[in-house]
Amino acid sequence: MKHKKLLALFLGGLLGCCAIACSAPGEQPPSDNIGKEDGQKPQGQKEDGDSQGSDSEKTENQKPVLDENATDEDLLDLVKDDTKVVAEKEYAKIISDMKEHVEDFSGQLYQMEGYYLEEDGTSYITDDPKSTEGNSLPLRYVQEAPKSGAKIRITGIAEQGEDDTPVFSVVVLESLD
Question: Which of 10, 17, 68, 120 has the fewest CB atoms within 10 Å distance of its CB?
């Protein structure tokens, strides 16, 4: 149950960051709305007659998307429209492209199948159950690791790690063996 709460918290944080990062050009960032609660207008901003309530009122009425008893399947169902499914025949090209242009893939949600390997204390998804050479990505936040060499389906977020190398932050890891 603890890992499900962490996954829900992680996803909530991710969705919040995405919402802030994807705000339309010309919109006020949330920090510009400070002071509106007191009836003050932010410095350098004109009062907008189209406003239908403060942002704080809107967020108070929001409810969590998932409850504390949500399963991994519930989480996957919630994000299925935003998930890019990588087919087996596309796997090698996607991994290669991620390694060359991690900035183009960073922050996007992917689902792919491969093999789980651990090497030198680092977890990987790879297309070869014996080696991490070639088409493999390091994994972060693996909570319940399957046995090394196991066939897995993983849903996670491509991110830029240290030294501009791609890493895959795990949201859901399913063992297919």
Answer: 120
| Beta bridge partners of residue 159, listed in sequence order | 167
* Dist CA 162 CA 51 (whole Å): 42
Q: With contact defined as beta carbons under 8 Å apart, do 75 and 8 qualify?
A: yes
What letter represents residue 47's amino acid? E
* CB-CB neighbours of 172 under 10 Å: 18
DSSP 91: H
Asked if residue 110 lies in contact with residue 137, where contact means CB atoms within 8 angstroms, the answer is no
- Cα–Cα distance, 15 to 57 (Å, whole number): 20
Angle between helices 2-21 and 72-79 (to 10 degrees): 10
**Which of the four pLDDT bands, split at 50, 70 and 90, describes residue 114?**
very high
> CA dist 104 to 65, 100, 142, Å?
28, 9, 24
Q: 104: how many CB neighbours lie within 10 A of its CB?
A: 10
